[in-house]
Amino acid sequence: MSNPPLTQSIPLSPDKRWRAYWVCVSVAALTILDLSKVNVGLPSIESALGASPTELQLVVAGYVLTFGLTLVPAGRIGDQRSRKAMFLIGLSLFLVTSAICALAPNGAVLLVGRLLQGVAAGIQMPQVIGLVQQLFQGAERGKAFGLFGATIGLATAFGPTLGGLAIAVGGPSDGWRWIFWMNVPLTLVAIALAVWLLPQTRLPSPGRLELDPVGVLLFAVTVLSLMWPFLFTTGSPDDDPARWWTLVVFVLGLIAFVAWERRYAATGRHPLVPLALFRVSSFRNGTVLAAVYFAAMPSMFLLTTLYLQHGLGLQAVYAGMVGIGFALVSAVTSMIGGRLVDRLGRPLVVWGIALLLAGVGLLVLAAVSTPEAWTPWAMAAAMVLAGAGGGFVVSPNQTLTLADVPVKQGGLAGSVGQLGQRIGTAIGTALTLSIFYATIYRESGGDGSSGGAGIDVYHDAYALAMLAVAVLLAVALAVGLVDLGARRRRRSALG
User: Fold this and answer.
1) DSSP state letter for 2
2) Residue 52, H or E segment
3) How far lies 356's CA from each of 183, 293, 346, 370, in Å?
4) What value does the mean pLDDT take over residues 25-54?
5) What's the Rg (C-alpha) of the chain?
6) For residues 443 and 463, is the Cβ–Cβ distance under 8 A?
7) Residue of 337, 280, 283 lying closest to 139 (CA atoms)
8) Secondary element (H or E) of residue 374
9) Per DSSP, what are the bridge partners of residue 36?
10) Better-scored residue on pLDDT, 246 or 413
């Protein structure tokens, strides 16, 4: 029976720890930024390349798909070998694929570039979580995750503004290309910083690399079959109803994957996903909460951007600016939450989701009841309240989720959590976009995609799709309350 590979930590001074941390968090922000800033470019891509709603959906969700598929294997490799090497591989691939997307002559090439970009992002992200988990303990870890959450929040919310600026500079036909071109200098800087400042934070584990190839294959089939029907759900009457049959493959694949992983672990080898992680209630509950939360939040930004651009005719750069208040406020509350999480625990996350729900309600109210000239300003104000809540969710939940996970499994646990977030994003985006576009098709006689819908149609489409966002947030709130009750029962049993 072989022993699981061990992580051999290399001690670092505080200065080196924080330098490594900021390099890694900057790389994570770059990958998330590329998701959010592309959203605002969808109308420009549709106009320039004649892309259909399905193709536009795949430009966004295809990135998320390959991002998710790569996370767990990449986390395993980083845990067993060199996280620095994985960073550099991922960044180099991200650089090349950004150039492919920028030069894409048609939608097919753009989609291939986006799929490969997702692979690059999936290689990078697990190394970030594993590094933070390894380098920081206790209150300092909460601070690190607080800053991480603030950075990711800024990247998510400022992405549409940067995308809008790129379109304003490059023009309506080719401005979307600048969304990808801006990745090139940013990635070159990130590569230089990684080479210069990122130390070897661990020694490679001895022995051969264990990747559980059968587990990887079953895992890929399971994730792909779950996400597939949602990736091809746009709300158009042309959506193929047969796509939902892949969920049968998902159920069978999941059963086979769990059975294989148990059998593989029983032989003494290291499975792709240690199922024992899910016996840790804090990890299980936190992972589910994050998955549902990330099903809601990117959808909220995307729906708001589409409503402002298509419904109100706002230019992309101004539509993106509506989320700036969310970015700034969530950055502040993320840092505060990182410092308070050790003292307040799960209630901090629960109150954050409640604030966010209030913000979503105000967003819909502003969209449907204010004069059009004032609507963007009213929605920007609602985003401020939503941002205050959002900052208390992501980084505190990350700290609470990984608190009871062994450091040697930090990269793997982080990548499993990120996988849940990416699957949530793909499903949430597909669900809410299908409601949005289906309402437009239904109420405008099929002319909504070509700009034939009136403002009342967009009111209904936005309100119904945002109702789905609110339901997802309510589910996240329920999971938070369940976890809160479990923690209180454990404390009572111990006390």
Assistant:
1) P
2) none
3) 31, 10, 16, 21
4) 81
5) 22
6) no
7) 337
8) none
9) none
10) 246
SS3 128: helix
Place of tokens 């609470």: 400
Task: Please say whether the beta carbons of 68 and 168 come within 8 A.
Answer: no
SS3 at position 203: strand
Packing angle between helix 375-391 and helix 324-344, nearest 10 degrees?
A: 20
Residue 4, pLDDT above cutoff 50: no
Q: Which residue has the tokens 């029976």?
A: 1
* Residue type at 344 in one-letter notation: L
pLDDT at 275: 84
Distance separating alpha carbons of residues 5 and 206, to the nearest angstrom: 7
Quick one: which H or E segment has residue 13?
A: none
Structure tokens at 488: 């209180």
Place of tokens 């790389």: 27
Rounded CA-CA distance 69/232 in Å is 17
Q: Which amino acid is at 316?
A: A
Q: Taking the model in full, what pTM does it have?
A: 0.80
CA distances from 287 to 166, 175, 384, 416, 418 (A): 35, 37, 26, 8, 8
What is the C-alpha separation between 70 and 120, in angstroms, rounded?
A: 8
CA torsion 228→92→206→71, rounded to 10°? -20
Q: Nearest CA to 75 among 415, 418, 421?
A: 415
Distance, in Å, from the CA atom of 447 to the CA atom of 126, rounded to the nearest integer, reads 43
What is the arithmetic mean of pLDDT over 169-197?
Answer: 88
How many angstroms separate the CA atoms of 308 and 167, rounded? 16
Q: What's the sign of the alpha-carbon dihedral 52, 53, 54, 59?
A: positive
Q: Residue 421 carries which side chain, given as an amino acid letter?
A: Q
User: Which stretch of DSSP H or E encloses residue 269?
Assistant: none
How many Å apart are CA 213 and CA 221, to the nearest integer? 12
Structure tokens at 271: 């499975």
3-state secondary structure at position 401: helix
